[in-house]
Amino acid sequence: MGLAFYRNDGASLMPLGLSRSLWSKEQMHGVAISAGLSRAAEGALRDLGRDDLQPARYTVDLFRPAMMTASTFTTEVVREGPRICLVDVAMVQDGERVARASALFLKKGETPAGEVWSPDEHPVPPPLDLAPEGTEPHIPFFHSSAGWSQDFRAHQNSSRKATWQTGVPPVDGEEATPFTAVAAIADATTMVTNWGSKGVEFINTDITVTLSRLPDGIQLGLSGLDRVVHDGISVGTATIFDRRGPIGTTVMTAIANAKRTVDFDAIDYREDGSRSSPGV
Fold it and tell me: Long-range contact list for 137-144, CB < 8 A, 24+ apart?
């Protein structure tokens, strides 16, 4: 069995160990939840035969703890038109919805010729000699005042952060797609906007991804763009990029969870990206 978030059990998906959250051994993390939801949304679009559309906006609401138990994903095509398709997805455990997603797919076309402002500075991925191209999942790379590395302890500081990751297959025996990769990795927005000198002290309640195009392959990065915090509520924004440049943004809201901080001084990772210690 290779690295994946779920095992296919026919009518449902069973979370594998890689889906286990750092907040609790009994709960799933948002990366795995989003991977399952985006896989279902992409499957609904494929069933419609709409290979002329691409994902442009994807929003996940994490409103109940998702447990390490059998999960089903139901889809509803809310609207399908010549240039648009809107798909809703629900993640269900023990008969209750624990998370939902809305995926907006749009038809590509020609970009108008008018000149419009855009930023001059863009995030840069780690060099190829440090992070070669490929499709094998690995320990995420992070960048902070300590530079690029896979040493989580070195990045437990208050500086601005970025990450570079390779998408994990949602289901064992399947391949990650560019959409499931970006949808899942987007949950790491909390790592580039809420990770500070004492670890991650906020737990996110949602994820929103906006895309002008899909990443080239399943390797991509997130770079912290903005963060505002008041009264225990954090709003973080990150730029999504691949080796060609920026492709969109993520926005995440989170609430303070200081009593159950994820402290990366206490967590180790194996070479394949799986955890070798139980976390907190």
Answer: 137/3, 137/166, 137/167, 137/168, 137/272, 137/273, 138/165, 138/166, 138/271, 138/272, 138/273, 139/269, 139/270, 139/271, 139/272, 139/273, 140/164, 140/165, 140/188, 140/191, 140/273, 141/165, 142/191, 143/223
Cα 95 to Cα 93: distance, rounded to the nearest angstrom: 5
pLDDT, tens digit (0-9, with 9 covering 90-100), for 46-77? 999 999 999 999 999 999 999 999 999 999 99
pLDDT of 2 above 80: no
Quick one: which of 197, 106, 113 has its CA closest to 160? 197
Predicted TM-score (pTM) of this structure:
0.92
- In this structure, is the dihedral angle defined by the CA atoms of residues 36, 41, 44 and 50, taken in order, positive or negative? negative
Segment 109-136 mean pLDDT: 94
- Can you state the angle between helices 178-185 and 30-47, rounded to 10 degrees? 150
Q: Which residues of 63-76 are buried (b: 16+ CB within 10 A; e: fewer)?
A: eeebbbebbebebe
11: helix, strand or coil:
coil
Separation between Cα atoms, residue 102 and residue 100, nearest integer Å: 7
Query: Which residues neighbour 265 within 8 Å (Cβ) at sequence distance 6 or greater?
Result: 153, 156, 199
Cα–Cα–Cα angle for 33, 25, 71, rounded to 5 degrees = 35
Instruction: Determine the pLDDT at residue 203.
Output: 93
Percent of the chain predicted with pLDDT > 70 = 94
Q: Choose among 6, 243, 54: nearest CA to 134.
A: 243
Question: In 3D, which of 136, 254, 246 has the Cα closest to residue 190?
Answer: 254
